[in-house]
Amino acid sequence: MSEEKKFTLTEHLRELQRRVLRIAIVFAVTTGLSFTFTGYLFKVMMRPIPPGIQLIYTELPEMMGAYIKVGLISGFVLALPYMIVEIILFVAPGLRPKERKFMFAFVPSSLVLFAVGALFGYFVLLPPAINFLVTFGTEFATPAIRVSNYVSVISRLLFWLGVIFELPLVAFLLAKIGMIGPRTLDKYRRHAIVGAFIGSAIITPTMDPINQILLAIPLIVLYEASIWLAKLARRQPRPTQASPGPV
Fold first, then answer.
1. Dist CA 33 CA 51 (whole Å)
2. What is the predicted pLDDT for the residue at 35?
3. pLDDT tens track for 154-188
4. Cα torsion 231, 232, 235, 240: sign
5. Higher pLDDT residue, 21 or 134?
6. Which listed residue, of 12, 46, 61, 210, carries a Cα 20 to 30 Å from 191's Cα?
7. CA–CA distance, 202 with 196 (Å, rounded to integer)
8. Does pTM surpass 0.85?
9. In 3D, which of 67, 65, 79, 63 has the Cα closest to residue 31?
């Protein structure tokens, strides 16, 4: 019996190793492809910068490092769907058929929500935040923004916004498999509201309260949506009433 358990564990580790290797290969391929349009991504990332502001670099490898960082991030985003599928396939044997169906539905839904979060940050949050940063205190100093700092701030903000917008979907799946319930989420609503403002202060690159409120409000709405989706997931179909037998 112990040999059977040891063999099963060994097989699981080998399966995990194979999937990690495939993920690494796909990530290498998507990263290589992403370098073909990294220049275009740079132009897209520069659009929120107000007119008259020019990025600089103060070290010889700085621009190359920023270029490589954008390529790696875009390669990761391109490989993300495959990574999610591999993770689901690895855990699928331990799930019930209905749970597997919900897990596979997670892939397209998660990508859509991630994209919505990143687009929200790019079009709604970034323009006022960057404008505030580059215009604050200009009567005392001229802004000279390093390209590496700009790429780090923008990529971190857009990534975490994409992750945060996954919250309702994660809550729905966890409620569906019975790990959390709507009562638990409702119980911690006040904590979530406070956490939304704390999180927005951490994620937002500025100390401007307007920009923090712009991020905190969607976070609170997402949490409320998570409660509603958890209720929907835990709602059980009503049993059909048995028809009376023949008299």
1. 31
2. 93
3. 998 898 889 889 888 888 878 877 778 888 888 88
4. positive
5. 21
6. 210
7. 10
8. no
9. 79
User: Residue 56's beta-bridge partner residues?
Assistant: 146
Residue whose pair of structure tokens reads 């403002």 in the numeric block: 197
Amino acid at 148: S
Burial of 60 (0-12, 13-18, 19+ CB in 10 A): exposed
The CA–CA distances, whole Å, from 245 to 127, 159, 238, 240, 241 equal 69, 61, 21, 15, 12
Give the pLDDT score at 235: 66
CA distance 95 to 228: 24
Angstrom distance (rounded) from CA 68 to CA 34? 10
φ/ψ of residue 156, rounded to 5: -65, -45
The alpha carbon torsion through 82, 86, 89, 90 (nearest 10 deg) reads -170
**The token pair that represents 96 in the structure block:** 């019930």
pLDDT digit string, tens, across residues 189-236: 899 899 888 888 887 776 777 778 888 888 899 999 988 988 887 765
148 and 57 in contact (C-beta within 8 Å)? yes
Token digits for 208?
């401007």
